[in-house]
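Hey, resending since the last one bounced:
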Amino acid sequence: MNTKGNIIELFDSITDYWSPKIIAEVNEDYIKLAKFKGEIVRHNHENEDEMFYVIRGSFEMHLDDEVVTLNEGDFYVVKKGIMHQPTSKEECWVMLIEKKETKHTGDVVSQMTKSVEEQMK
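The structure tokens again:
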């Protein structure tokens, strides 16, 4: 796996929304890039926190009792076990930091769910 890359060029190569791409490994974590538009299934990660960092655009993180708006330059950590659903009206570029064992949509499986192998392509 590469240790150097250009984030803009990597985002330009992503064609599908909600389909994270693993770009690096840091210790026990994967660094992923994803384009958001629309919404993904509501889910949680029982044992892992998940960090979202907005590179371009904005999105909303729908939680049980609040909606957090994230704009370019913002980051947010969803703590383990918290139900969440990211949504975006316009295309948004997001970097994610997750433990290697984190399942894309937790234990909820939908047609949008991507395996780790699919995220490495």
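The CA atoms of residues 7 and 55 lie 9 Å apart.

Sorry for the duplicate.
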